[in-house]
Specification:
Distance between the termini: 28 Å
CATH topology: Aminopeptidase
Largest sheet: 7 strands, mixed
Structural class: alpha+beta
Strand content: 25-35%
CATH class: Alpha Beta
Shape: globular
CATH architecture: 3-Layer(aba) Sandwich
Order of helices and strands: EHHHEEEHEHEE
Strand order of the largest sheet: 1-2-3-4-5-7-6
Number of helices: 5
Bound molecules: coenzyme A
Number of strands: 7
Helix content: 25-40%
CATH superfamily: Gcn5-related N-acetyltransferase (GNAT)
């Protein structure tokens, strides 16, 4: 598959693991990851992950946006230790939104999140993205610090405890 084919998979250093695109059959493993990330759901939702949390995330799309325009990738090392959801061309053509980035607590704080974002950046830029976007909840200052450390900057969009941040695609920090 050519490097700029949007179906190609983002690549991380093999020492970290391997990214592969998730499919519906992977939902039980994704649900298990979500359940190991109870801290994130407590912070973001004020509750533990629901029994169908992975399925709900799988189907979650902005109104009117077709499901085919979202891809989920899992980091395997060798089991599933992280997930990243990417929406193509949202909220404008050329802007690709990281709708979810969630790492197993056991692998946080060692650069894996950074590597995943850089891999998504290179992959998205090769497929035509000019901007990466993420929406962060202000109750999650650690995540805000992470995105800011990677060069994401506030956009004017602040609402209901959320802030949208963006950076140009193919930015190596
Ligand atoms: C947020 C998350 C994706 C970051 O991934 P990570 O692999 O832990 O982060 P990295 O090790 O790549 O960190 C890179 C830099 O980001 C900053 N950073 C990361 N996590 C941070 C935290 N909790 N508090 C403050 N700064 C943080 C630091 O500057 C760090 O650089 P340093 O290690 O040299 O200090 C991960 O911790 C996670 O999955 N958290 C739970 C889910 C979540 O909040 N997702 C984001 C929702 S918007």
């Amino acid at each position: 598959m050519p490097r700029d084919d949007p179906r190609a998979v983002p690549e991380v250093d093999p020492a970290l693991g391997r990214l592969r695109e998730l499919a519906r059959e992977d939902l039980p493993e994704l649900q298990a990851l979500f359940e190991r990330c109870g801290d994130y759901f407590a912070l973001h939702e004020g509750r533990p992950p629901a029994p169908d949390e992975a399925e709900a995330d799988w189907d979650l799309m902005p109104a009117g946006k077709p499901r085919e325009e979202k891809q989920a990738f899992g980091l395997y090392a060798p089991g599933l230790v992280a997930v990243v959801d990417v929406l193509r061309d949202w909220r404008r053509p050329g802007t690709w939104t990281i709708a979810l980035l969630l790492l197993d607590p056991a692998v946080r704080g060692r650069g894996a999140g950074t590597q995943i974002v850089e891999a998504v950046d290179a992959w998205a830029a090769a497929a035509g993205a000019d901007t990466l976007r993420v929406v962060v909840k202000l109750v999650n200052p650690g995540a805000l610090a992470f995105w800011q450390a990677l060069g994401f900057r506030d956009t004017p969009l602040h609402y209901e405890g959320l802030v949208a941040l963006e950076r140009p695609a193919r930015t190596i920090v």
